[in-house]
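Protein in question kept underneath.
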Amino acid sequence: MKTVPHVAFEVDDLAEAIRDQKVIIAPDIPSTGVVAMIEVNGAPVELMQIDHLVRKDL
């Protein structure tokens, strides 16, 4: 997915945001937070839940 253009959104509750969605990359923890990829109308969409208590710069 690193080479595929896609939009990304920050969400408060990743589990709720991906419920009933077509998940193409399951939730993962690449940094301070959790990310997942879903497919919406054939397009990849990245969803991120960030712990702002740890990452105060975001």
